[in-house]
Amino acid sequence: MRSGIWLSLVMLMGLVVGGCAGRQDLETPDYEAIYDMPLEEMWPSVREYFTDANLPYREDRGSLVLETEWKQEFGGSKIAGYWHRYMVIGKRETPTKSKLWIIRITKTVNKALAQPGRQLDWGAGRGLGGPPGDRGTGAPGDASASEAYGISVEDDADRLAFPVGENAFYVDSGQGTRDLTMEWRVFRGIMPKFAKQQAVRAEQQVAKAPGAKDAPAFTECGQSILGLKKLAQEGGVLLLGELHGTQEVPRFIAQSVCQLVTAGMPVTVGLELPVENEERISTFLQSQGGEVDWLKLMEAPFWRSPYPDGRGSEAVANMLEQLRQLRAQGLDVAVFVYDHPKLSGQQREDALTKTVLAQVKATPKRFHLVVSGNVHPRTAKGLPWDKQYKPMGYLLKDQVEDVTALDMAYDSGTAWICAADAQGRKLDCGVKEAKGKDNGDRFFVHRWNSANKEGYHGVFYVGHVTASEPAINKGLGNPDAAPASAP
């Protein structure tokens, strides 16, 4: 009964006079998408959707199950490091209604998704041949060894199932979860084709850049960030207070932007980089991303600071590449920088606020995602060492109606941090431990009922953190360049 009611509501809300449709609600419903038709009638459109979305698949036609090939985040970025595939299972709700279960399977080149204890060998080696004491060990006398490792017949089946070439990844990084976001994306793509009224438009919208000829039917943006889309409003400002120098925060930003623009919300990203780099970064984002384009981006003095504090990390450079790729696909992504490093104290906060405010006022129909160290976003007056201090967030909230500040939450790990040495005479920059609290592996956003004493309205969580070194240590941030040293 409930499924029939909400399906009717979806169809009714899609009716718009003149055949046009506004942007869909960004947030994914927390209930299943039910198709008001038998599974066998719906399934051919499922095949068509995945074909049109450029998601090749294999199908078990006897059981109405298909599995897509691996798809890399951000349209095939060489530096994203994450791949996803989908298992799509058709299910009968009733004889006349049906639904899909879509399982997202994720792999990564690092072992961030590995299950605890998976690296231990709990059983006997599976190697074949060679002296009994050497089997499965990779020892010189082990006939099952391949180079330095013991590989068995059973291992070959696993190894050959891996993506190859640019899609290669390491073992022990798999993770599978049900993906309601993808289920609703497919639903919105299929249902208009079955609607009797031509004005019904239930498909998910994308934010297409002005002047773009086309936008992709599907872009892989990673697993949905819980709670993010509820905060995305036209003209709104989301301030993220981060710990510089991690791999996870730049990925969180790139994923957030990707998920919002593919849901119909144009996004402008504000980065705490020197304003002198505005033209250089803008040029890179509009470029083809070739080697010369990378060199022009990275020749700015900012990337070669004697005290690299994490804002010039490899992860930040790679994030710019991911945003460039989204723009290149015709998605409405913009970036600006707003730091004034020659100023300090309250003068700097005033200058940061002025630059950010100018961007927000100039583009009131966009959502603004502004990232900085965790002092600037605070919307409360005062700091422990200066009770009259007015952070950027405090100044912005009086001039912009929708300002939300989120502090960073994370599981323990490492970060590239600059801190005073033991004598307190100079900055010591390098990989250091970062202590946090484990709240799982999945990115999420959580808003509290009221702001805390620092003026934060909630947190954004990025899981276990891993240090990201300065981009110049990694081939000038060029994703095609070999690392400066072996990992």
From TrEMBL:
<feature type="compositionally biased region" description="Gly residues">
    <location>
        <begin position="124"/>
        <end position="139"/>
    </location>
</feature>
<feature type="region of interest" description="Disordered">
    <location>
        <begin position="120"/>
        <end position="145"/>
    </location>
</feature>
<protein>
    <recommendedName>
        <fullName>ChaN family lipoprotein</fullName>
    </recommendedName>
</protein>
